[in-house]
Write a structure and sequence with these properties.
By secondary structure, the protein is α+β, with helices and mostly antiparallel strands. 24% of the residues lie in helices and 31% in strands. The longest helix is centred in the C-terminal third of the chain and has 25 residues.
Length: 240
């Protein structure tokens, strides 16, 4: 199932493939909340690395946001909203939250849910000569990926790799370019991803791989590709 973007939806979206998984649009953030703690791997400004999470937040900040201490800011916002710091990840984005795109699907081995906010104001191509920046800025393509199933740690990393490949494929198909060199972009300078895995035994089998040769990897790829593409198209449509 693909929901192109959050425009026109209720502020609460309940997963059709993972009972109890809920995406809520708040005034300044998106909240993805699971029914239990998840094994997680991610690059979020708060709650990144390998952890155990029950919530992922994607927090909107405008383009004048002072990035001098984003970790402190994220922790203060999460605390103010009543989310436990030890089980909540925090991403920052300057993309309008109404353009969040959602895709989910399942088979006999796992269920996959993905919510992405995408913008390309700082598109970049990895591996090319371009400007670099030492300072932190809010993420432009933020991917919240959740898998109901059993994955090894290696498969979790493989899942993130597949997600990044799918993101790059979507940008290539939309002909997004790095303004520094005119080459096809592979992402932006500030992308982030958080993966959460239930490790539920309700789905038979332990996934040791999540690359493009696997059914799980195919679902991940479709979910990320679709949400990146639909999120960008929704934002572009509004500007016309």
């Amino acid at each position: 199932m693909t929901t192109p973007f959050m425009d026109g939806l209720q502020d609460t979206y309940r997963s059709t493939v993972w009972p109890g998984l809920v995406l809520t649009r708040k005034e300044r953030h998106l909240l993805l909340e699971a029914p239990e703690l998840l094994d997680s791997l991610g690059s979020s400004i708060h709650g990144g690395g390998m952890s155990r999470l029950q919530r992922v937040t994607n927090i909107y900040v405008d383009r004048t946001y002072d990035c001098s201490d984003p970790v402190r800011d994220a922790e203060e916002w999460l605390t103010a909203w009543g989310y436990p710091l030890d089980s909540t990840a925090g991403l920052l984005t300057a993309v309008q939250l109404r353009h969040a795109a959602v895709h989910e699907e399942k088979n006999e081995q796992a269920a996959v849910f993905c919510c992405t906010t995408a913008g390309i104001s700082n598109a970049a191509r990895a591996g090319s000569e371009r400007r670099t920046f030492a300072a932190y800025t809010p993420g432009t393509i933020n991917i919240m990926l959740a898998i109901d199933g059993q994955l090894t740690k290696a498969a979790m990393l493989n899942a993130v790799m597949t997600a990044v490949e799918a993101k790059a494929a979507a940008l290539a198909d939309l002909d997004v370019r790095d303004p520094d060199n005119g080459l096809v972009a592979t992402g932006t300078t500030t992308d982030a991803v958080v993966l959460g895995v239930s490790q539920s035994a309700a789905y038979a089998g332990l996934h040791r791989y999540a690359g493009t040769a696997t059914d799980l990897g195919a679902m991940i790829g479709r979910a990320v590709y679709t949400t990146v593409k639909e999120g960008l198209l929704a934002a572009w449509s509004e500007r016309k």
